[in-house]
Amino acid sequence: MSFKVADDSLLVGEVSEVHGARLKVRIYTDANEAHTFFRGEVVRGVSVGGYIKIPCGYDNVIGIIEGDYQQESRVIRETADSRVAPGQTIERFVDVSVFGVISKDRFDRGISTLPLVKSKAYLLTADELGSINSPALLDEPIFRVGTLAGHDGTSVYLPANALFASHIGVFGNTGSGKSNTLCKVYSNCFEGIDYGVGLDNVKSKFVFIDFNGEYVDDGILTDSKRVFELNTRTAGDKVPVPEDFYSDVDIWSILTRATDKTQKPFLSRCISAAKQVRAKNRPDAYLKKMLENLLAGYCGDAPSFGEQRSDLARLVAFAIPSSSYGDALENTTAALDCLETRDRGAVVHNTNKGDGDGYLNSPADVPTVFEDCLALRLDFTSLANDVPRLLAFLAYYRYLEQWRRGSIAREHISSWIGRYSSELQGSRRLFEVHGNGMIEETESPVVVFSLLKVNQDQKRVIPLVIAKYLYEEQKKRGQSDLESSVHLIIDEAHNILSYSSQRESESWRDYRLETFEEIVKEGRKFGMYLTVCSQRPADISPTILSQMHNYFIHRLVNDEDLKAIAKSVSFIDGASMSMIPVLPQGCCIVSGTAATHPARVQVEKLERVKQPRSYDRELATTWRI
């Protein structure tokens, strides 16, 4: 057992009061310098945010200074002049909160014994500061975060496992340095993995959801990343999804805002019908026969044709393989324009035929009456293989058939079916079904999904789909493979994790939050970890915010954001909270299970080529001012 007597040159005061883990320390008058020299090193003096050690038996109790003030002396000190008035002597005191102990040259968080009144208080050496803020140096793989603010040259290391096997929150206002911190944390992580077993040899998957295209350039994060640049306007990359994506009743009922009593059951029947069609030996022939039977149903029911003409054109358009559904719909509409009802609406007639021909008097007349429509380039084979088109086709088929039979009320389905068709068509630009699932098909261990060129509606959908299927796949994989993990990193997370958004239905908001809240509450058990980065923590669900294990908190000035942090983050003290609005750029409060205590850390700026595309523009240089 080693015990070192503290050097008196670092002696700064003595304990005057003990109230549990909070101490009051009187500072000697000769210890009021901002810095002092100790064995050739500059040691920070007594100030708020600084550290104090207090010998207690064979151990040193460590505390952080949270308050600094002066106070009049309560007693008359013995002096040569007995006329010294009471209260004339002013003394300096600091409030100290103790949080750990250095024992046997090792720092341990937590207190088993407390100092006594009159115990001496000392400043810490650089080595002691390092051991307190970087306990992982002793026996665990380490990860460098930055330098301790106010203590130049003292690096802060965190245990790699405690940091990355956790949910992480990075918060800060625009320009505070949060994007640099997020990028640096994971860039250093990837460099460390490459130096070890190699990034391509690990069973971990790092998935970044990038709303603003900040991480797509070469050199950012890692050179071996796979970037998916999604686009809702032109052809772009597609998100690989499992085969059951289009048959997920829950997610499609939410996306289309389907009502529980009528529209959701209708959706479920459409999905079941699609499965039955694809299971047929000749699905193309089956679909062709379905269309012929639907057209034959207008025999003797011409009024229904008049009411359903526009929806029938939409149905047939899905059977035409075309890059533009609008062009296909224009062709089918034109092909049906030659049809009209005759004999006071009793029969359908093709006006291109003579008066004695072209009447739909029996099912055998379908090829003649609907000749122009059936002559279009209908391809039922491609329709059967294109799941989104097939689902839209079957939805309109069931809608028209049941409406004509009177088994559904038109107004209950008409508004929903348009939304369903639109969502299915939009999904074809963004999602692609793969049998191996998302984890396998994304190939690279580091994947970036850029949503810069995606419209606002799909920006709400894509992160949910990615998170949902990553979690489902990792739940299965993580139970048997304990070396596997998935790390989902969401920059600008308030776009998807907001609990107060008014731009969506309540059911959609609940489903979205329930998905992410389950990940943050249960994901750790299966090796699924969430990292969120946001400038508006107040907009994020309190459940998600409070379930983070580690936090990097940059400057925040909005009262609501500060209240959200104070309410949700249990790893932060009052002194650290008070510093958040005045933190300089790049400086953050690091707190959580990986840290011994809340510490102010200055995160170094990345090289320009490695920085995310969120840096400030040099307008003065551009303008040559």
UniProtKB/TrEMBL annotation:
Superkingdom in the source lineage: Bacteria
- Indicate the segments forming the Helicase HerA central domain, all copies: 144-295
What Gene3D superfamilies has UniProt attached to this entry?
Answer: P-loop containing nucleotide triphosphate hydrolases
Recite the UniProt keywords alphabetically. Answer: ATP-binding, Nucleotide-binding
Does the record bear Nucleotide-binding in its keywords?
A: yes
User: Which GO molecular function annotations are given, in alphabetical order?
Assistant: ATP binding
Q: What is this protein called?
A: ATP-binding protein
UniProt source species = Collinsella intestinalis
